[in-house]
């Protein structure tokens, strides 16, 4: 069984994002970048499937400029076998990314595609579902547990009402939630081995996909500063504040 794991390069979750002076986007200069945390969970799940003998190969795909090879190498150090970089300088939206991934899926013919449910920079939570629609593959989103064999996979999903388990016939798509697993740390010998694993670089424009974005960023600004709370002496004053300031009564 071949497993494809798309990964995304994002600002490290420990870094406070800075907005550009012209408010056109996020300032990425001299900022620590890392693999999207949900993508790390997806890589970990794919590697565990390989270690259990269910998966035979783990292929990592990343879309962006040459810098995203750093995240591909990280995934290779964690146990993936090879990587593909789709090179582009364009700021792509979810649908374009899904279309690019569909081309890779059609070529590689994996039994499983495991993605993070969302990226922490855009928080769109769209790519996995769009890829499912484009490929017509069954999907199990927000996975908190995965039990796979050669023909099907049971996915336990986190939903508002609790947990839901769905059975998917392979090939299928899974998007990972936080509680699926705890990603491992790459060991130094594995980091050294990852340098010898192959990464194929392909130009996004050669895939025959319209890369012009349909989404336009008008303005990026910080959320309003939250005002401090007010202490009240009794219930009557609380009701008065709710009536006069919050206007909820």
UniProtKB/TrEMBL annotation:
Residue intervals of the Electron transfer flavoprotein alpha/beta-subunit N-terminal domain: 23-211
SMART domains per the UniProt record, alphabetical: ETF
CDD domains for the chain: ETF_beta
Name listed for the protein in its UniProt record: Electron transfer flavoprotein subunit beta
Organism: Glaciecola petra
Pfam families (alphabetical): ETF
InterPro entries named in the record: ET-Flavoprotein_bsu_CS (IPR000049), ETF_a/b_N (IPR014730), ETF_b (IPR012255), ETF_beta_N (IPR033948), Rossmann-like_a/b/a_fold (IPR014729)
Family designation: Belongs to the ETF beta-subunit/FixA family.
Coiled coil ranges: none
Keywords: Electron transport, Transport
Gene3D superfamilies reported in the protein's UniProt record: HUPs
